[in-house]
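Listing S7. Sequence submitted for prediction.
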Amino acid sequence: MLAGELYGALDPELVAARARARELLRRFNAKPDRSLLEELLGSIGPDAVIEPPFHCDYGCNISLGERFYANVGCVFLDCAAISIGDRALLGPAVHLYAATHPLDAETRRRGLECALPISIGDDAWIGGGAIVLPGLAIGDRAVVGAGAVVTRDVPADAVVAGNPARPVRRLEVRT
């Protein structure tokens, strides 16, 4: 699964891992406690915050940098690695979809899935309701407009918006 190859989501090990994540999320969403996030996530940087409710598939495939912030209602489908840099900001209801499905109907019928990693750089800002599709990278200091659907990599210092997300402008880099 983590290698981007086809896998069966009903594999008992994966079913158990999702059940573990659901239980930790149930407890976190009812009563936010950083120790629950530390148990759930692969890594979480100092002063990183996730506002509940939060949902993910496994949790262990998520790495968050220092001073990361996710507003309410974010969803991370972490069937592949999701890594987010330092000081990145996510608005409410941002969805990160590392999970995907084969285009071939017969392969889907057999219950096989696949996933591709998502990477978000330092100081990136993703506006509320944005969706990031599998296998994409969002560069350092990039801005994704609210409601955007990101279907391509976003370079550092770029501003994108729309569905599909398109470049709006480049940011000036301050030293």
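Caption to Listing S7: primary sequence and predicted structure tokens for the chain studied. The mean pLDDT is 96. The longest helix spans residues 12-30.
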